[in-house]
Amino acid sequence: MYRTHTCGELRLADAGKEVVLSGWVQRVRDKGTLLWIDIRDRYGLTQLFLQEGVSSAEVMEKARTLGREFVIQAKGTVIERESKNPNIPTGEIEIQLNELNILNASKTPPFTIEDKSDGGDDLRMKYRYLDLRRNPLKNNLILRHNVAIETRSYLSEQGFIEVETPCLIKSTPEGARDFVVPSRMNPGEFYALPQSPQQFKQLLMVAGFDKYFQIVRCFRDEDLRADRQPEFTQIDCEMSFVEQEDVLNTFEGLAKHLFKKVKGLEFDKFPRMTWHDAMKYYGSDKPDIRFDMKFVELTDLAQGKGFPVFDDSEIVVAINAKGCASYTRKQIDALTDFVKRPQVGAKGLVYVKYNEDGSIKSSIDKFYSPEDLKTWLDRCGAVAGDMLLILSGKTMETREQMNCLRLEMGNQLGLRNPDDYKPLWVIDFPLLEWDEETQRYYAKHHPFTAPKPEDEHLLDEEPSRWAEIRANAYDIVLNGVEIGGGSVRIFNRDLQNKMFRTLGFTDESAQAQFGFLMNAFEYGAPPHAGLAFGFDRLCSLFGGQESIRDFIAFPKNNMGRDVMTESPSTIADAQLEELQIKLDLK
Amino acid sequence: MYRTHTCGELRLADAGKEVVLSGWVQRVRDKGTLLWIDIRDRYGLTQLFLQEGVSSAEVMEKARTLGREFVIQAKGTVIERESKNPNIPTGEIEIQLNELNILNASKTPPFTIEDKSDGGDDLRMKYRYLDLRRNPLKNNLILRHNVAIETRSYLSEQGFIEVETPCLIKSTPEGARDFVVPSRMNPGEFYALPQSPQQFKQLLMVAGFDKYFQIVRCFRDEDLRADRQPEFTQIDCEMSFVEQEDVLNTFEGLAKHLFKKVKGLEFDKFPRMTWHDAMKYYGSDKPDIRFDMKFVELTDLAQGKGFPVFDDSEIVVAINAKGCASYTRKQIDALTDFVKRPQVGAKGLVYVKYNEDGSIKSSIDKFYSPEDLKTWLDRCGAVAGDMLLILSGKTMETREQMNCLRLEMGNQLGLRNPDDYKPLWVIDFPLLEWDEETQRYYAKHHPFTAPKPEDEHLLDEEPSRWAEIRANAYDIVLNGVEIGGGSVRIFNRDLQNKMFRTLGFTDESAQAQFGFLMNAFEYGAPPHAGLAFGFDRLCSLFGGQESIRDFIAFPKNNMGRDVMTESPSTIADAQLEELQIKLDLK
């Protein structure tokens, strides 16, 4: 038996007990006649104590050979500590050591196994198994486990059944790029790894499963941005005989359950915002509503006064940076640089300061009188001490730029506390999105998303009006991050055919790609709707972080590489031959 | 709102309520002035009732247009049925129909959606979404969901953390064939899909996770036997600071929990059998102990009496078929044909009947006196009315043949009831297995399995003695089917190196394949051990069936094809080009 207790559970009440602990050496303090060893496992840290004359010479000697991260087994007696450590749960006791076994030695680790490590990112990724020994990462994965457990518990309670859908599926050219898997038994043919179980979950609705969910691995062969992974996990859900309202309520229920069980937080009904309002007031379909600072349009007030930049703009839009009238020239220049960065793309930034003394100062005083500017300040609800920040240009572009600026101001003013959780539903997304490059409409969500019944007739109008069609599609947003989204699906074959034609599919191409689903729809498809949460992201937000990487046990880097296992790697010629493929390197 | 109730929940106590149901038309019975519709959903079946004069003409007319599997919404009043159906929970009521909406029509399904369908296997696979509407399949997947829920509940309760390990991993040539995934971002390189998370779970032990589990998809590119799938699911587990006994107790606990929660069955301590005894008494490392019929060796009694077949055999082994003395010539001939089938491979079958009248009759009366044969009967514990069945030849082959015969006799005598559950631990597997073809030893379990400490010294002896080395490896067997297996792992680098050398690896080849794990072991690997259950198989046994296919929502056929989605399939040239591979078809 390797242990009687873990390193996290002994308390003063255990004093006098003979115990056996096993774990890793966190540190050794050798004071000559006295020696302490901190032993660590997943559950905590316990202090071992040796004293010359009390402990045997052999044990003392062995203790002096220990290095960091050695794996040891310690036998001894629980005693009360002389100098207690109130910072750890075992801080009132220590173990008077009688016997010490070295179970395994360790080379000196390349970085310290402490909450704040001295290891750089690359080194920590290479030795991920050592990085995972550190509390922050360990706790992230325990949090992830708890979120999964609570998700399953809630959904099962609600009558959902978890059904595993295949990983080796049919490749469909629509959407993002598939990872593919050559089939040895079917030479020249390939499986794809699923980008989501979308079609299978819809088939399960046709099959009458009524309420389906799955915590499921998905794959996307994309050029990876900073915080994307080629494989990621979704909480994937679908329900039959429901309307949008049922879906929102069910998954708001899930989110509330998770907040309560994992974070101990209770919420009222989540607010809802139309996509149109989200764009108008926040310039984003995932507004961070932890802070206000809504967009205010000044176009009518700002135009016609001879300032050509505003006069030539589709829109002039302001945010009110509360209490920022005291910003220095340098601070404002920095903001101007910020909005002019290529990632934001604005041409410049206009400010209007409403000074504490009631005076008004702006970068466009030449064109506007204080009275003019006062009307702007009033519309923005500014009071003395505030500052307006103003951008102008094409409507969508300007809104997106202002979104960046608003978030930056939120950061600067400390309004984006990761422990302050503000969920939001964004609803009524557009059904279709026009793509300038290919000169066609694309499904904003996916081709199975239903238009709002009251907008459906617009599909029979001129294509120019299609952009107005709203979908029964919704996203759930937390602190400015989309954590989930879904839609009511089309379950009527005629409407689905019309939708495919709208998206530029011929009947043949639609049949080739989605034939099995469309065929299934001919055998009594029920009305259905669904939603998927990004599980990695959800966990990272619950953990108070925006990056998902440290909430995944073994993530890949931006080149899709696992630097620990050195994967991907070349494979043997014999393997290629069996698969009847060969390399064709450029 | 599509429904107020499901089709499975209304009872007599609900009489008088106005309700709305949605579901599929199971059948319509039209008696002219009276008309009944059975409406079905996942939860059950409810009868709708229409009556000329009471129901509106419009509703009557619409009801007459319904076909099987139409999706309808029915509004009406719950009333007590005149002729009750005690076979279904809703059998005391029906719905007096006021309003009927056809939500979706259906083509006539290609087979009946009944518990016993008229559809052949191929048709049912092609229309899997219709097959899944049938109760037997639906219930299989609900059972699977429940087994998963209870597995997670038990293991979490025991302090296990579910950690998701990657699906895109490094290919290792050892073991079964990997599915590989070309990496677009790393041209010429490939990921592999995991055959199991073996190395990652060992890394998690090095990382100090202490108790890990995962219900995880695994992949194996094998030529598929009848009941194998290219992707399958495991309950994968690993623990630190444990010995074999801890692992057996923990997972026996899991199995008992599942039996209790899913099947309502309670068990005493599971019996244990060494691999050596399993082979000696059952000729199999997965004995079906629902029935006795153990092997009895008669070699010493049978040899030296002039019967050359036995005299030239390494072993003569019998089973006692209780009560089978009445078997006819024809029945015995059929058994002889059975053992001579190539899948079994015996040369012939000897019987000894102990007739009810006390006389003895055998196929070898020429060589053995009744007194000789009586000693055989006595050793086998046979009484009047029993019959011995005897095979002989090389030891291992004969035992394997006798295993087939024993299972066949179990079937014929009705001793293998799928609802009778008899779990068993098989322990002390050999560490190594000699392969005649390649003239080397292979790891019986895998190269990380630890030898029993008391046998470890044999690794330093002549290779001829290595076959004697027992491993700390164990299988859990249920009703003659292996449902899980695992081992205590090697955590000491020196022993691991020795093991690799024993398996014919050079230091370089071991480093190339397992380097990251071996490196990790240098930084304080704890003693650890684990086990994995075959989840699909476990579910099928709980469902009382031996085939896993109907416990997987969307399985593949023996060619690895999904005939519903027609996958795998060819992919576009552009996709191949991006991946920098090309086809090389023979």
Q: N- to C-terminal separation of chain A?
A: 58 Å
Measured as a percent range, the helix fraction of chain A is 25-40%
Q: Major beta sheet of chain A, specifics?
A: 8 strands, mixed
- What is the CATH topology of the largest domain in chain A? BirA Bifunctional Protein, domain 2
In terms of topology, how is this protein built?
2 copies of one chain form a homodimer.
Chain A lengths: L17 E13 L3 E8 L2 E8 L5 H7 L7 E10 L12 E12 L16 H6 L1 H4 L3 H23 L3 E2 L17 E3 L7 E3 L5 H9 L4 E9 L11 E10 L3 H20 L8 E3 H8 L13 E2 L1 H4 L5 H4 L3 E7 L7 H12 L9 E5 L5 E3 L7 H10 L7 E7 L1 H18 L10 E5 L4 E4 L4 E4 L29 E6 L2 E8 L4 H10 L4 H14 L7 E7 H8 L30 H7 L1 E3 L3
Parallel strand pairs in A: 3-5, 6-9, 11-17
Antiparallel strand pairs in A: 1-2, 1-4, 2-3, 4-5, 7-8, 9-10, 10-22, 12-13, 13-16, 14-15, 14-16, 17-20, 18-19, 20-21, 21-22
